[in-house]
């Protein structure tokens, strides 16, 4: 099969639906079962060995041999292929372990947000006033007007909300 970008749309949609429920443990189990079903004296390219693999023996849980094959095709698409299938399976295992660990690294929900820049504080405070004074201006024109007004502020003025410039 060609890469995902060359798959027919209906096959691609079916693959996405069937492949969405693979957990990290399931992927590692698939790779382990593939590794156990590889011939011990493998000297063929990965494509030859992959085409000769008995996917029925690889199947486990609710995953059919066909589903396992498609998941392997999805995993192997990003790997270098000038090696044996055994080497690819080992690399895919390492990749699966690293990939799932990086997804868990997320910001803590109580982590404070970054403070607004001086320009954004100026913009948030001045926008309602300028939009009332110029109701016919579009959002883009209003933003342009406020950015020009901000640029004209003297550099030594530290915008802290106290400085108010009349919107002409």
From TrEMBL:
Residues in the DNA-binding region are 112-162
Q: Where is the HMG box domain?
A: 112-162
Highest taxon of the lineage: Eukaryota
Q: What is this protein called?
A: HMG box domain-containing protein
Alphabetical UniProt keywords: DNA-binding, Nucleus
Q: Name one GO cellular component term.
A: nucleus
The answer on whether this UniProt entry bears the keyword DNA-binding reads yes
């Amino acid at each position: 099969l060609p890469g995902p970008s060359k798959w027919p749309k209906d096959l691609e949609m079916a693959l996405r639906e069937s492949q969405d429920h693979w957990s990290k443990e399931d992927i590692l189990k698939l790779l382990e079962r593939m590794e156990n079903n590889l011939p011990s004296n493998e000297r063929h390219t990965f494509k030859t060995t992959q085409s000769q693999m008995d996917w029925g023996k690889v199947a486990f849980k609710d995953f059919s041999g066909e589903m396992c094959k498609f998941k392997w095709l999805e995993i192997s698409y990003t790997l270098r292929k000038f090696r044996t299938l055994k080497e690819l399976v080992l690399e895919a295992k390492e990749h699966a372990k690293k990939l799932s660990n990086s997804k868990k690294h997320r910001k803590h929900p109580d982590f404070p947000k970054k403070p607004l820049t001086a320009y954004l504080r100026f913009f948030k405070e001045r926008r309602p006033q300028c939009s009332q004074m110029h109701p016919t201006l579009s959002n883009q024109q209003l933003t342009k007007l406020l950015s020009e007004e901000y640029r004209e502020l003297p550099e030594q003025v530290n915008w802290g909300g106290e400085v108010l410039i009349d919107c002409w």
